[in-house]
Amino acid sequence: MCVHILLAAYLLAAQWLVPSCSASSSSFHFHFPFPAAAGRHDYRDALAKSILFFEGQRSGRLPPGQRASWRGDSGVSDGAAAGVDLEGGYYDAGDNVKFGFPMAFTTTMLAWSVVEFGDSMPRDERRHAAAAVRWGTDYLLKTLAHPGVIFLQAIAPHCSLVGDPWKDHDCWERPEDMDTERTVYNVSAGRPGSEIAGETAAALAAASMVFREDDPEYAETLLASAREAFEFADTYKGAYSDDPDLRAGGCPFYCDFNGYQDELLWGAAWLRRASKDDTFLQYIQNNGKTLGAEDSSNEFGWDNKHAGLNVLVSKEFIEGEALSLQSYKEFADSFICTLIPESSSPHITYTPGGMMYKPGGSNMQHVTSISFLLLTYAKYLSKSSHTVDCGDISVGPVTLQLEAKKQVDYLLGDNPMKMSYMIGYGDRYPQRIHHRASSLPSIKDHPQRIACKEGTPYFNSSSANPNPLVGAVVGGPGEDDAYEDDRADFRKSEPTTYINAPLVGVLAYFVGNPNPDHTRQ
User: Fold this and answer.
1) CB 520 within 8 A of CB 28
2) In principle, which of 203, 264, 329, 400 could form an S-S bond with 374, CB 3.0–4.6 Å?
3) Of residues 434, 435, 481, 489, which has the active-site annotation?
4) pTM surpassing 0.85?
């Protein structure tokens, strides 16, 4: 991801809250200060394309079934400089760098999408989604299995970054051509990174549930490695951003602004979900307060897991299996209430066209991740008599489903620009996205090398990208709903893996449930 997106997002985070009006009655139907979406969308088509996107982000040797055929092999020697094999994984956005922290979160959310909504996916898309998860987990397993002294001392390193982000961002070249330094960074007992290790544990544990029936041996490997990653995270506590060398590689692109404590709870929560091991239930119960489970947050993303954690953990309480987790349900309710304009809670900003909005750029990451939590929480609530208590009002699952539908329909074209923000979906979508591989001639059509600075004319060109990155969702419009389709405006025009990962689950839900019952609360 380009420089400054995330700094701006966090520096401006306080603007996320706006005053709200008090509700005047104890029950209500959800009303927004903008028109309801009117379009009818092909959620199945959008789902297929949202999964296909990940094939365009692959690093390493591409498999025979590669459908994004304009891509070629890249990064095949990643890790060689350090004597390890780190081939594979995903480029995080429109660059050629593999950042371990957002990649692990991407994998977690892909896996969660399959776990919660895989039953709504057509069989082929379920298979493609599982393949997308596995491309991530195969790489994450490599970061836990480095040979050498560290491994033999039973201290698992966790690769946080492959590639020099500063040098990479100074070039506009295809991943197949990249000649910038492929620096390897890692964390260890002496240089901890609990947030990376904790998120890796979450990703592997969640993914183990995806493969439990079809590949139980692989699932067991994932779960065992998740335990190992979590033990490392919990034993050697610390944030990678606190280490000067690691900070130089990861910041300001993916600084850990939120601390590592939420990833410890997040990793434990996924291990509890995947293993049913009471050890992790006790960890969640005993450490919730000290690790900040009650921290109020109305965002969910690669750095801040609190809202997702509370939704995930509340499942056991809602289903009556762990009444000791009631506080997590209360924390989840508090998060949901910030999305309800009629609640007395301070709530998020909506654009005039109805999109959830947070300053800082790459706004669609908030739209997709929050929509995923709305649908997941609604799923849990719908299997019980529980509702969301927002003070003077009570909110039921259909309200949450309808709001998620408004958001995804906005993304797909029901917006003031009359534009889909998913490449290849609908009749009108961005043509000049901020993405190196998409904007440069395919290596299949132009096998001659395009060096670092030789790609600059393509960056500056007003022509459409020659290789449509089908399924990619761009950062999206600003607070005025405007989108200029400008390749240079990376805050709006750059896609990321962690925009798409939760969207896979959202779209899968609407494939199976295209019309939530708006006559109910």
Assistant:
1) no
2) 400
3) 434
4) yes
